[in-house]
């Protein structure tokens, strides 16, 4: 048949008398009958995402580059600035995408990562075109909630309330950023008028033991919690619409722990109130005279037979609370349950020691008891031994306020009333001491030595623990 075209992917030079043609190098192609020399053999066009290397053939486009199908070029197209694509994965320019955004930013498909707007936040690696809004409640398009500076919100906790909270010794005071357009603002307890506020109010406050405030212990802190509710519904309605809640917390250091439920707040010792909605603050002080104006500077030596003037006070915002002295006992141990020497001065609300007497409180204050008695030594105690004074006090409130009157306590024997009987009272153990039984030959300044002496070595404030009902 004579000369025939070389098959596809083969070539031959002129004057070929051989019965075959030469194959193209592996990976190269040429049309049948078109290969007249080896250089006529060419690489196949590359697939999308590849470029043509004349030595090795098609190779993947490098990272952040792309190429279309049938690419015969020795290079790929770069992605637009700021966009990325994995090596060999860019087949179209649209395959190039923006890098995930840093925390506090969102992805704009035209311009890349942008700061979240004010009062919005986003986590790291954000690929969304928006940020998360800070918690907020809206009524009539009036924003009322939390805020964060533009670009500073990297997590929801970065959003902070626009309002301010002031924690004082007696109150929690919230100052709202604006009055808003809510018709009703109230604390948890809506049964008291003082716990509800007008729509125009911007200062919302409550005493620590009022309006449904609860108390929790968290490590070394005591935390008072309540919340302010905002609504546009009648408070008597069982249905709530357009409602939001603003939680508030006041945290106080719980330092100077002495006994189980005692801690200091602003220099005072406190315990949970018996209502569970606040605190009772107890102070147990010594004075130098019967006018109760000059506090004792501790430690102080007290001669045997010299009068000791003491005052126990309950500091509470409850105007109807009364304080009664259930018992007063001298012990040589701090723990009343341990074996030791003790001496009753007041028992079951009635005085036992003949030298004990109450002092008048002017002006009258039912939350305060003042009394005195002659100092003494406990039989069998040696020099250097310790003496603690323990006062069990009862606090009463509401309809049971009269139950803490001293005469009532004494007439009732032990004077303990059960909560089940409708009273609102609890007993608290207030410790003061120790006194140190000193050498009878020692003197303290101008103090006269008359027999054994007691050295008072306690702070002004007393340790307080719940003694039980």
Summarize the structure.
The chain is an all-beta fold and 469 residues long. It contains one helix and 39 strands.
Give a written overview of the molecule:
The protein has 469 residues and is an all-beta fold. Helices cover 1% and strands 40% of the residues. The chain has one helix at 406-411; strands spanning 10-11, 22-23, 28-29, 42-43, 50-53, 57-60, 65-66, 77-78, 83-84, 97-98, 105-108, 112-115, 120-121, 132-133, 136-139, 142-147, 160-161, 164-167, 171-175, 184-186, 196-197, 203-207, 214-218, 221-231, 244-253, 263-265, 268-272, 279-287, 300-303, 307-315, 322-331, 342-347, 350-351, 357-359, 368-374, 386-396, 425-438, 453-456, 463-468. The strands form 12 sheets. Strands 29, 31, 32, 33, 36, 37, 38 and 39 form an 8-stranded antiparallel β-sheet that branches. A 6-stranded antiparallel β-sheet has the order 26-27-28-30-35-34, with no helix packed on it. Strand 18 (164-167) and strand 19 form a beta hairpin. The protein is rod-shaped.
């Amino acid at each position: 048949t004579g000369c025939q075209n070389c098959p596809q992917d083969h070539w031959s030079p002129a004057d070929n008398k051989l019965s075959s043609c030469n194959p193209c190098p592996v990976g190269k192609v040429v049309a049948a009958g078109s290969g007249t020399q080896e250089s006529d053999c060419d690489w196949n066009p590359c697939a999308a995402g590849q470029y043509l290397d004349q030595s090795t053939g098609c190779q993947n486009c490098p990272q952040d580059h792309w190429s279309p199908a049938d690419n015969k070029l020795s290079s790929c197209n770069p992605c637009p600035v700021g966009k990325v694509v994995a090596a060999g994965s860019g087949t179209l320019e649209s395959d190039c995408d923006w890098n995930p955004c840093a925390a506090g930013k969102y992805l704009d498909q035209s311009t890349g990562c942008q700061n979240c707007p004010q009062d919005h936040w986003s986590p790291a690696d954000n690929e969304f075109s928006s940020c998360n809004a800070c918690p907020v409640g809206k009524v009539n398009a009036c924003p009322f909630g939390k805020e964060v500076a533009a670009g500073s919100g990297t997590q929801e906790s970065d959003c902070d309330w626009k309002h301010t909270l002031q924690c004082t010794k007696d109150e929690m005071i919230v100052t709202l950023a604006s009055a808003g357009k809510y018709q009703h603002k109230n604390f948890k307890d809506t049964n008291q008028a003082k716990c509800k506020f007008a729509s125009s109010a911007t200062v919302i406050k409550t005493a620590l033991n009022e309006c449904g405030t609860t108390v929790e212990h968290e490590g070394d802190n005591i935390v008072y919690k309540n919340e302010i509710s905002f609504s546009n519904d009648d408070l008597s309605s069982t249905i709530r619409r357009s409602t939001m809640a603003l939680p508030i917390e006041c945290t106080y250091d719980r330092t100077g722990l002495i006994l189980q439920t005692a801690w200091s707040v602003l220099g005072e010792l406190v315990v949970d109130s018996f209502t569970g909605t606040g605190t009772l603050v107890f102070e147990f002080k010594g004075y130098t005279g019967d006018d109760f104006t000059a506090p004792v500077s501790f430690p102080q030596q007290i001669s045997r037979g010299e009068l000791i003037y003491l005052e126990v006070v309950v500091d509470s915002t409850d105007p109807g609370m009364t304080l009664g002295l259930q018992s007063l006992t001298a012990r040589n141990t701090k723990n009343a349950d341990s074996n030791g020497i003790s001496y009753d001065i007041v028992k079951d609300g009635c005085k036992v020691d003949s030298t004990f007497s109450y002092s008048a409180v002017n002006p009258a204050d039912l939350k305060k008891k003042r009394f005195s008695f002659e100092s003494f030594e406990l039989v069998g105690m040696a020099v250097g031994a310790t003496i603690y004074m323990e006062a069990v006090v009862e606090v009463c409130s509401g309809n049971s306020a009269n139950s803490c009157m001293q005469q009532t306590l004494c007439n009732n024997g032990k004077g303990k009333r059960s909560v089940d009987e409708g009273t609102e009272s609890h007993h608290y153990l207030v410790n003061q001491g120790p006194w140190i039984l000193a050498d009878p030959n020692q003197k303290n300044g101008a103090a006269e030595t008359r027999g054994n002496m007691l050295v008072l070595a306690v702070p002004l404030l007393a340790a307080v623990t719940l003694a039980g009902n």
